[in-house]
């Protein structure tokens, strides 16, 4: 039974790998990266899929923006971390306007998982932006709320301020003015606190 499971995982890995390579040759770079990420979500330990994804990213039009970030990951010895690599590629796809592919890749990163709450929060934030761009306000606000929860847990008031602002705008666009008002009030309170803290650090001469 164990051998059968192992064979299934190997064949699944190869299927995702071949799909990624085929899409890459067809010039569908964003879809290729989504295929590699989906495979890694199923088997995060697959070095073949991780290397394939990095190679595909470096052959894509995103190379110029992605390469410096990847070099930083190498220096920090994070270039073999499936979560970090997949989430970085997902955020690059989002920046490049490939919203559908970025959702697939970023959600694959969440399935792979990480112990770092801060890194997970950055993925929640990116997913909220991606779904917003796709017009899916329900999914977007869901990820905004998770982003806010992470910021609160970390005591990150800048992150809280940003998340409340995003939620306020989202609720306003949906006509939920009560929730919009509540979130914008929280945003203003936090913004004032942050401004006061900045003034304390840099008192006027």
UniProtKB/TrEMBL annotation:
The organism's place on the tree of life at top rank: Eukaryota
Key words, A-Z: Cytoplasm, Repeat
GO BP term, example: establishment of mitotic spindle orientation
UniProt xrefs under InterPro entries: GPSM, TPR-like_helical_dom_sf, TPR_rpt
SUPFAM superfamilies hit by this protein: TPR-like (SSF48452)
Organism: Leptonychotes weddellii (Weddell seal)
GO CC field: cell cortex
This protein's record includes keyword Membrane: no
Name this polypeptide is given: Tetratricopeptide repeat protein 28-like
């Amino acid at each position: 039974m164990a051998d059968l499971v192992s064979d299934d995982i190997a064949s699944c890995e190869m299927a995702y790998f071949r799909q990624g390579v085929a899409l890459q040759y067809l010039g569908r770079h964003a879809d290729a990266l989504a295929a590699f990420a989906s495979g890694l979500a199923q088997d995060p330990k697959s070095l073949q899929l991780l290397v394939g994804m990095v190679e595909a990213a470096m052959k894509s039009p995103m190379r110029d923006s992605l390469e410096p970030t990847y070099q930083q990951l190498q220096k920090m010895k994070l270039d073999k971390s499936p979560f970090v690599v997949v989430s970085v590629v997902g955020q690059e796809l989002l920046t490049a306007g490939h919203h559908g592919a970025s959702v697939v890749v970023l959600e694959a990163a969440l399935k792979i998982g990480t112990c770092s709450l801060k890194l997970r929060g950055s993925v929640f934030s990116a997913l909220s932006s991606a779904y917003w761009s796709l017009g899916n306000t329900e999914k977007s606000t869901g990820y905004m709320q998770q982003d806010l929860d992470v910021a609160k847990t970390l005591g990150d008031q800048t992150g809280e301020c940003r998340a409340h602002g995003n939620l306020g705008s989202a609720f306003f666009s949906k006509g939920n003015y009560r929730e919009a008002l509540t979130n914008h009030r929280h945003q203003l309170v936090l913004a004032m606190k942050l401004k006061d803290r900045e003034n304390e650090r840099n008192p006027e001469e």
